[in-house]
Amino acid sequence: MDTAIEVRDLVVERRGRRVLDGISCAVPRGAVTGLLGPSGSGKTTLMRAVVGVQLIRSGTVTVLGHPAGSAPLRRKLGYLTQAPSVYADLTVRENARYFASLHGLSRADADAAVTDVGLAGAATQLVGTLSGGQRSRASLACAILGRPEVLVLDEPTVGQDPVLRTDLWERFHALAAAGTTLLISSHVMDEAGRCDRLLLIREGRLVADDTPAAVRAAAGTDDLDEAFLRIIRDRERAGAEKGTVRS
Ligand SMILES: Nc1ncnc2c1ncn2[C@@H]1O[C@H](COP(=O)(O)OP(=O)(O)OP(=O)(O)O)[C@@H](O)[C@H]1O
């Protein structure tokens, strides 16, 4: 496997509480990897560590062979945060063109990104007047327009209707087919099946790192929601048995 992101023994504490507890995983290049887990399980924290904006307690995070957050990665990594990061007093197009200019890209590149996220019809609308889902797509346009080698997208499909979600997933796969590495978080299990690989995280620990097919097979169910529950139950049972042996 050609690895784009490598995480080793990552421990993160926030306000004195351990929120990532020794995570190790590898994210393959040119594929869509889903980061799935319940609310508060540590998905955003892991993504922040990959982007290099999270203070870490120990461990290493390497992206395209460089330490996370280091200068060579600045132009190579795009990050979509959960909170839209576009200017409310500019139109969708003005935002995209502004971010394109920062990357030395053309207006045509900016307009293409706006079209890619399905916002061509709202290009001249002020971001402050968009719906939540549209605003999130305006942010997404700005994250993808530099054609970064690695895209870290924190819940990019929240608030989108089913048709748009399908369009966005098709776009993600088209980007991966063109060589982009995508790490995408979601807590919606029906999106897990759309990923090439899955990282399942719970309470700051990785509970699965495999393809959706292998996760289904290991858990003995086609339903990924159920598979996730079974994996957790099995781990808890194994942990309890270990505890019994020790005592
Ligand atoms: N700024 C912060 N200060 C202290 N603790 C934080 C901070 N941000 C998050 N946490 C805690 O870290 C843990 C992991 O949070 P994180 O945002 O990474 O989870 P998540 O899986 O992305 O959740 P969600 O799906 O709800 O976005 C949670 O217990 C959360 O309360």
From TrEMBL:
Residues passing through the membrane, by range: none
GO MF terms, alphabetically ordered: ATP binding; ATP hydrolysis activity
Domain ABC transporter residue range list: 5-228
Source superkingdom: Bacteria
Alphabetized UniProt keyword annotations: ATP-binding, Nucleotide-binding
Classification via InterPro entries: AAA+_ATPase, ABC_transporter-like_ATP-bd, ABC_transporter-like_CS, P-loop_NTPase
Key word ATP-binding present: yes
Keyword Membrane: no
Protein name from the UniProt record: ABC-2 type transport system ATP-binding protein
Organism of derivation: Micromonospora pattaloongensis
